[in-house]
Structures are given as structure tokens and as C-alpha cells.
């Protein structure tokens, strides 16, 4: 992979109107992820903001779904559902509205278990869900993991604006277990800012 050095960025306003951008943010990454993480791995999203339809036991809880988390002190290296069926989900409350562009997933660190595909629902309020790509009673199914350690990134096109994000596994290897991070930019408190 080659690297580029950016020394200058030139911008221009609209030619036909007196409109221009006065300031903007630039995000970069050597890993190819050009948006900041929203806080699963860093724990900026607290444990009580992560919930799930079920958990195998208290050592396999939804708070274990943090990207790159490792097993230790009796806790496992992922969230693991109690049941293996398509009614299982894990939900993240971002605590404020955000533009979410990318999801990253991993399998369970300490066992060969992972989610192979999933759908994503989201909302600004937890009871008013939209499913990504829902058109004519179908929805986008994202390809997940093929092993327990590799991080797989998927881009939401178009981006979503949400406070709540829910991941619903569709297919899995051995058992529903996963670790997650979301990437994007926070845009306000609980309210949508347009």
C-alpha cells in the first residue's frame, strides 16, 4: 500500500451564489477508515447503553461486544446470544444522534464462533426502527465474518442518522457471537440536527 503526503487542500465556493464553506473537519486513517470510532472499543459508550435480545449467561453479555475485547476474569471475548435464531439482536445506544457511516465486526476472540451475515436497523428513537436498504419488503443483508479475529468493515450507503443501532444476525458459524464498532460523527444531543 502506498502512502500519500497531503500538503494543501484547496476549496472553492459556489460560482453562481455567495456561498462557501468556512471550516471543515478532515479525518484520516492508515487503516482506510476515514471516520472516528463512536466508542464501543474505547468504552465511551457505557455498558448500560448496550443491550441484547438474550445472552448465554452474565459472562457473555452485550457489554462484551466491544471490538478487540479479549476474554479474562471469567468474561468471554464477545457477546454470545442465548439462542441461535434470527430473532436475536444486539443494540447500541450512542447516547446522542450521530451520522453513522461504517460498521466493523469481529467474531468471538476465545472460540471459533462468528456472525456470517446480519441486517442493521436504526432510529433516533428506540421504538421507531428503520432497516437499512428496506425496499419492497426486502432489506440489505451485510456480509459479516469468516473467522473469529479479522475485522470486517461495511459502509452504509447512504449513511444513516441515528441514536440507536440494532444488529440482527441472519447466519452464523457455530454460535451467534460478535464484537462491534461503529464509525461516524456525533451531531447533537438526543435531537436530530439538520
TrEMBL record:
Which residues are the signal sequence here? none
The protein's matches in Pfam families, at most eight in alphabetical order, are given as:
F5_F8_type_C (PF00754)
Query: Which PROSITE patterns does the protein's record reference?
Result: FA58C_1, FA58C_3
Q: Coiled-coil stretches, from where to where?
A: none
Domain F5/8 type C residue range list: 33-185
InterPro entries linked? FA58C (IPR000421), Galactose-bd-like_sf (IPR008979)
- SUPFAM superfamilies from the xrefs? Galactose-binding domain-like
Task: Tell me which PANTHER family the record gives.
Answer: F5_8 TYPE C DOMAIN-CONTAINING PROTEIN, MULTICOPPER OXIDASE-RELATED
Name of the featured protein: F5/8 type C domain-containing protein
Species source reads: Nematostella vectensis (Starlet sea anemone)
Amino acid at each position: 500500500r502506498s502512502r500519500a503526503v497531503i500538503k494543501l487542500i484547496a476549496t472553492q465556493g459556489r460560482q453562481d451564489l455567495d456561498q462557501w464553506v468556512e471550516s471543515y473537519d478532515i479525518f484520516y486513517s492508515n487503516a482506510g477508515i476515514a471516520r472516528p470510532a463512536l466508542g464501543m472499543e474505547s468504552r465511551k459508550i457505557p455498558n448500560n447503553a448496550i443491550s441484547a435480545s438474550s445472552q448465554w449467561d452474565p459472562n457473555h453479555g452485550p457489554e462484551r461486544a466491544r471490538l478487540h475485547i479479549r476474554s479474562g476474569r471469567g468474561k468471554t471475548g464477545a457477546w454470545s446470544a442465548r439462542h441461535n435464531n434470527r430473532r436475536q439482536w444486539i443494540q447500541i445506544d450512542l447516547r446522542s444522534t450521530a451520522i453513522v457511516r461504517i460498521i466493523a465486526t469481529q467474531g468471538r476472540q476465545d472460540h471459533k464462533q462468528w456472525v456470517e451475515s446480519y441486517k442493521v436497523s436504526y432510529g433516533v428513537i428506540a421504538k421507531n426502527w428503520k432497516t437499512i436498504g428496506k425496499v419492497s419488503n426486502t432489506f440489505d443483508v451485510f456480509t459479516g465474518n469468516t473467522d473469529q479475529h479479522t475485522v470486517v468493515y461495511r459502509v452504509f450507503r447512504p449513511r444513516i442518522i441515528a441514536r440507536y443501532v440494532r444488529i440482527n444476525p441472519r447466519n452464523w458459524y457455530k454460535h451467534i457471537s460478535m464484537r462491534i464498532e461503529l464509525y461516524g460523527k456525533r451531531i447533537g444531543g438526543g435531537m436530530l440536527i439538520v
